[in-house]
Amino acid sequence: MIPRLYNSCTEDPNTEGLGSLKDLLSVSITRNYNQIPTLTITYPNNGSLSKTIAKDMIIVADIGAKDTEKNQKFRISDVSKGLSALTITANHIWADLSSIPLRKDVMLANATPEFAFNAIKNALAWQMPEISFYTDINTVGNVVWSFRDIDNVNSALMGADALGDSAVNTMQTLYHGEFQFDNYKLSLLKHAGTDNDLVIKYGRNMQSITRDETTSGTYNAIMPYVTLSSNAETSSDEEITNQPAIQNLTNGIIRTYSSPNSGQEPADNLANGAFIQLVSKTSTETVNGHTWYKTSTGTWIDERWITFDQSKKYLVNKLSATAILTANQDDNGIIVATNDDSILYAGKDNKELWTSPFGGEASNEKLHNGQKYKICWLAKDLNGELWYNFGNLKTEWIPASSFYLTGDNVAAEKVYGHLTITGSVIASKDPKKPNMELIWKNVGTYMVYELQIDSDGHTWYHLGQFDGRQIWIKEGQNTNFAAVMTADDEDKILKQVPVYADPTGLTPTTMYYEIGSKLRITAQSFNRGNIFYEIGTNQWINSKFVTISSSNPVGETSVDEHTLTLTKPVIASEYALKTHAPLRVQAVDFSAYGIGDNKNRLLSVAKAYMKQNQIGRPAISLTVSYEQMQGAYQNLTSVDLYDYVGVIFDEVNIFEKAQCKSITWDPIREVATSITIGQLPSNYTHYLNQFVTSAVSTGTAEAKGQSTRLFNEAKEDAKKNDQKQIDAINVVQKKVDHVSESFDGLNEKVEQISTGMQNFLTGTQTGSIMAFPNWKNPTEIRAKTASGGYVRLDNQGLTSINADGVETFKVGEFAGEAGVMIDDVWLSKDDIDWIHKQQNSK
Question: How many domains, in total, are found in the chain?
Answer without folding.
Answer: 7
